[in-house]
Design brief:
This protein has an eight-stranded mixed β-sheet, with helices on both faces. A two-stranded antiparallel ribbon has the order 6-7. It is built from eleven helices and ten strands. The relative contact order is 0.18. By secondary structure, the chain is an alpha/beta fold.
Length: 265
């Protein structure tokens, strides 16, 4: 039995972050087939007694899918407007996916301000507990249409970490387009080694090369390590795994599950 397998079986409250690259097809449109498959896997875990909160990127990807003529516009107002359009489409597709499993969803759009304000963070926590207790899947994203530098978290890796801490989760799963943390970029270095478990994050930083962000996402390996630093300090394990594989979530329960598990000592 792998450590990933064992840890996920023990975890009851799980926050799962889906990155833009996992949600996007190669042509930049939203991968609705993936969303339907993923919703079915969530339903399976819920039947096993798990509680799930989803942090979903993809508003900009969905916006480009809907309003293709804005794809190349870089002006910040157009990008925020694109996210406004895309968030509607993104939630529509998630609603359709979970509806097939007879599950309802609820949307929360948040900023850094919401987590730093005591009253707002308490309200978020209470809303999350209420939704989950009633069998509803909370789907969280950053409120990109109104965010600016001072109140912007900036990436959904750290947003999911803040959510996991606020909800007192047992595990945070970050689904990306790579299998986990490698000693170097596996896309450019075939000799890069997968690091299966991490006990000391400062030592990890010294031993790996951290590259740039990828095509659709706002994060990269740095933001994932930042997320791990946040949650492990609160006793929450974090798993980084490849969300692009078929049945990626369910496969984490198998004995040969792969990924990088950030352990709590």
């Amino acid at each position: 039995m792998s450590m990933i397998n064992e840890s996920l079986k023990k975890a009851r409250k799980i926050v799962i972050k889906i990155g833009s690259n996992t949600l996007a097809k190669t042509d930049g449109t939203v991968n609705t087939e993936f969303m339907s498959e993923f919703a079915a896997q969530c339903a399976d875990l819920i039947k096993q007694g798990k509680q799930i909160i989803l942090v979903s990127s993809g508003a900009q990807v969905a916006g480009v899918s809907t309003t293709k003529e804005w794809a190349r516009k870089k002006d910040v107002h157009y990008r925020q407007a694109l996210c406004s359009i895309g968030q509607v489409e993104l939630m529509h597709q998630w609603r359709k996916a979970f509806q097939k499993q007879e599950l309802h969803i609820g949307q929360l759009l948040l900023t850094k301000d919401d987590f730093e304000n005591e009253h707002r963070s308490l309200n978020i926590r209470n809303t999350l507990f209420t939704l989950v207790d009633e069998g509803v899947i909370p789907i969280i994203n950053e409120n990109d249409s109104v965010s600016y530098d001072e109140i912007k978290i900036g990436d959904n890796d750290n947003l999911s970490a803040l959510t996991a801490i606020l909800w007192s989760a047992d595990m945070l799963i970050l689904f990306s387009d790579i299998d986990g943390v490698y000693s170097d970029n596996p896309k450019t270095n075939p000799n890069a080694k997968l690091i299966e478990t991490v006990e000391n994050i400062p030592e990890l930083r010294k031993s790996i090369k951290i590259g740039e962000t990828n095509a659709f996402g706002t994060g990269g390996m740095e933001t994932k390590i930042q997320a791990a630093e946040k949650v492990t300090e609160y006793g929450i394990q974090m798993l980084l795994a490849n969300g692009g594989k078929q049945n990626a979530l369910i496969k984490l329960l198998q004995e040969d599950a792969t990924g990088t598990l950030f352990q709590v000592l």
